[in-house]
Amino acid sequence: MHHSICCCTQVAGLRSENPTIKSKSIVAARELLVAPEKHIQCIAAGITPALRDLLKEGTAGQEDPQEADLHAATAATMQLLVAKEVGCRDALQHGCLPHILQLLKQPSTAVRDAAYGCLCAAAMYEPWRAALVREGALPALLLYAQQEEPQRAAHALALLHHCTQVGLHSCSGLRASRQA
C-alpha cells in the first residue's frame, strides 16, 4: 500500500501549479516507473492522463526554455510508461499519441529527442503502430526524416519502418485465414 500512496502523491504533484513541484514529481515518477510493481500502481493512480496534460501545456506556440525542459522530461517519463505494453495501451486510451506527435514540431532538440524516444519505445507494440497509421502520422514522419539531423532522422525512419509492418502483418494474417 505504501507504494500506491507514493504513486498517488507523484500524480498529484504532476498536476500542481508549482513548476518546482511538477519537475520534482516528474523525476520521482520516472524512478517509480522503472519498477515493474510500481509501474502498474502508477497507471492505476492516474499517471497517464497527468502526463498527457503536461504534454498539452504550451504546445500551441513557441516554447520558452522552462516549457521545453518540462516537455522533454515529460516525454522521457512517458517513454518509460509506454515501454511496457500495459502503459502503451493506457497511453492510447488516454489520447496521448497526438500530443507526443505534436512535440516533434517543437524547436527544442531535447524535446524532439525525447518525443522520438517515446514514440520508438511504444512502436514495439502493434496497437501503437496501428494508431500511428490511423493518426495519419506517416507523411509527417517522412517529412521529419528529411528535415532532421541524422540521429533524429534515423528515429523517424525507424518509426516509419515499424509502421509499415502493420500492413504487412495484417495482409499475411489475411492470407493465412483465407488459406485455412
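[next item in queue]
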Amino acid sequence: MHQIRPAIALTFLLAARFLNAQTTWNGLRFRMTESEVKQALKSRAVRPSARVKTENETKEYVGWEVHDLELEQMRGFAIILFDAVSHRLSGVVVYVKDPDMDVHALAFPDEDEHASIFAMRLQSLRDEISKKYGHPFLHSCPTLQSCKTTWRDKQQIVDMDIMAGSVLIHYRLRDSTPDL
C-alpha cells in the first residue's frame, strides 16, 4: 500500500510536467520563466526598447521582443507576454505585414496580383497552424481585408486576425481565457 502512494504521486507529477511541456510559438512552453524564454530564443530575444502596453497590464506584461521576424515572406515582430504575478510565460503575439499589399490591392482584390499572393500566404499560415492545432474552431473571412481564424486545444487558444494586409497571431493559455 505504501508503494502505491508514491507511484500515484509520481504519475501526477509527470502528468503535470507533460501538460506544461506543450509547446507554443517557436518551441516556447507556457509557464516558462523569463530566463528560460531568453535561453530558448537566444540572441533573438531582446528587452522591449520602450514600455510596450498590453491590453490588461494588471495581468500581464511584455518581457521580451523578437525583431526581424519573417513568416511566409511577411516581415514583423513578436512580443512575449508574462503573467504579472507569477512572471511566467502567458502568451505570444506575432505581428507581420505583407510588404506588397496596398490600398488598391485591398480595394480591388480580383484585379490585383498582390492580393492573390497575400491570400496564398494566409492559407499557408493557416495550414501550418492547423498542422499543430487541428481544424480551426472558428473561421470567418468575409473579405481579404478582414479575417479571423481561431484554433483551440486543451491548453491554448490561437487567434489569427487579418486586417488590411497585416496578420496578428495571438497564442495564449486557455485556462486564463473564458470559453468562446
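[queue empty]
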